[in-house]
Structures
1.
Amino acid sequence: MPASTRSERAAVLGGIALALALTAAAGGAQAHKASDAYLFMASDGGQTRLRWDIALRDLDAVLPLDADGDRQLTWGEVRHAWPQIDALALSSLAVAGCRFSVDGHALEQRNDGAYAVLRAHAACSVNAATPVRYELFHGVDPTHRGLLRL
């Protein structure tokens, strides 16, 4: 095979390899979901109920959830970490006039991964004008946001 044909073939193969690498990198960037938590609050008769869904992947970045370090979270590991999860969550949320207490836990599988679900209540009423301070992952993940539905 002539040298010019080999160099052309190498250039084409190099271009294909580069295109595949860029496609793979772009696909990975698109597949990464921003860090979001979902809060649902409802008030009725002086009581407010809260459901708070937080991605386990986000919690694992700041708490030692994966106790055995095998990169696989088990129900036992999450169950053992509930007190830490509750403390982190409740310390990062302030709703004027409300002091929430966690009264239940669950796990939920979503399209983007597993979520810890905290259920809580407080003896207070909230509405659209109630001041809320949300600081979950503050100083750790500047892209994180809490999405509240009242």
2.
Amino acid sequence: ITHLPINPGQAGVANILSAALAFPNGLVAFTYGFVEQTVSADDICPGLQAGILNPRLLSIRQADQSGSAAMAVNVPANFAGVTVKVQAVDLATCTGSNVVTETF
């Protein structure tokens, strides 16, 4: 699974988080945190090695037939200048994507 860049990556507006190459029609969890670190995240998916310390679940979306999933997130204006780590998790395979770093 691959997490794609956050669009537009700005505070105070809706941002699109998207992932590709997930299990077709499977579930994809979008997580975020503030520190990049490999940790066990069995509470999200058994055996998952997440790339974010204390990952927080944003939402779970269903991938389409090609394995793509996306969601919109309203990033508060007070997040301007804040750096966030975001990772998608393919729940069918318990596989985490690359970690995307975004400074809003």
3.
Amino acid sequence: GIDLFHNRKQTKTLLCTICNPIDSHVSGQEIQLQEYFKEIYYGEILLNDRNILKPYELDIFLPELNLAFEFNGLFYHSEKCVDNNYHLKKTELSEKLGIKLIQIYEDDWLYKQDIVKSRIINLLGKSEKIFARKCEIKELTDNRIVKSFLYSNHIQGFVGSRIKIGLFYNDRLVSLMTFGSLRKSMGQKSKENSYELLRFCNELNTTVIGGPSKLFKYFIKNYKPHEIITYADRSYSNGNLYYNLGFNFIKN
């Protein structure tokens, strides 16, 4: 109990031990996330349910959308407390039940909350909609613009890339896709005319309909790659974006 109380004090949230008892297994940040859903979603919300995904708990479940969210505190969800495959098993078990499970980590909620909230807004269908056909496609050469956009809009931030292709709506950068050589750090060997799709994201709280396809087709037409590989973060994605672009699944 004292560890949880210390955590709340350290992060300056929810110190009240009457409303939020210190022996509760729910952290202050998880309570913040729950309150956020109550503000933006008007359908049924089930909290800390242990009946749907036995023997596991679903922190937040939206039955009308078959959409669930897990809040992963860094200590209680570390390798000290759960095995390495715990989160993946939970995600895959949810999929078998037709539920899309999104894993939200405590540090992302603390330090990248705008991006996390934007992803939630997008999943709920509440983001601003822009059609890619109304956007102008441009290659970017100013790395400062690329860095700023990725740090502001992508959960993994910036990574260096050779090719940066953006969609502009009324001169506003709303979508970005970047490509580079195959990375040794990801266990790949660099090969001629082989690329990795490194980053894709939209501006916060924005969905560009047809955007990924327009950017990807531009890259293929202009660079004629022999091979393109990429990775889906299973915390947030089931890889459907890449299937829709024509990628073939290799392995988890």
